[in-house]
Amino acid sequence: MKVIIGGFIFMVEVNNVAGVTKVADNIERVAALEFSFIDDLVALGISPVAIADDGNKENIIEPVRKHLDDYISVGDRENPDLDKLREAEPQLIIADSTRHKDIYDELNKITPTILLNSFGGDYKENLEAFKVVSQAVSKEDEGKARLEEHNKKVDEESKNISIDKKLSTLPVVPAKIGVAAHSDKSYVGQFLEILGFDIPLDQKDANKYKPYLDGPYLQMTPDQLAELDPERLIIMSDKEDENALDKLKNSDAYKKIKAVENDKVHQVGRLAWAKSRGLIASESIVKELSEFK
């Protein structure tokens, strides 16, 4: 909804987790404090002026990164540098409702800030967040068109997936305890389920395992993973996960999992599969799935 203030300034009223936020119409300078919001903005043809990139531009997936202009890095997503944010002079800050709820008031003092559910959100919730971002930057029509394009891309590329979707398929991230398993309520878990894969871990199982961080992820020891015994395992890992991955692979329980015994283990990048959670990221996921053998 657009409103006029003082007869001259158009404002957009944006419904978000924080309530209703008034944002100037047709803004150009936006700060993104989560990877999915960078993805959202790039999908809309906007390059953020400030980004929480965890201190390294390489932490942004290449299909998104290649569209970015110079920006100010505000450091870690969990603890962004507020002085750097002020330096960037954004007209809007897009923040995560889990990571940034405690600093929302401070962010809002810098410039109008919206809170959206990315870190703890599933695939559908992140699509809804994209719609809100489209409204906040006065690009609702472009957002609708890009969403239609996204759905078409996913539908077309999914036809090229040749592996057996009927096999129970579990996406996991190596962790100290064993793995952080992604249920059907996680971003990638729900996306795989929408594509037709059988996800053997749903919300009903949540009480069996300890939650991992504050998202829809569940801690499993190698023994618990072997007990669940998925027929296909998608291991999402990056360099930072190497030690945990080695420990997992060297465990006796891991070697007894059906997926391991039958050579149905796929190792993919955690950045694209688990951290990015945007339209462009999910398009790259389905493309990669079509290349699985």
From TrEMBL:
Pfam families: Peripla_BP_2 (PF01497). It is found in: Cell envelope. Signal peptide: none annotated. Gene3D superfamilies: Nitrogenase molybdenum iron protein domain (3.40.50.1980). One of its GO terms (biological process) is iron coordination entity transport. It comes from the Bacteria. This is Similar to transport system binding proteins. It comes from Staphylococcus carnosus (strain TM300).
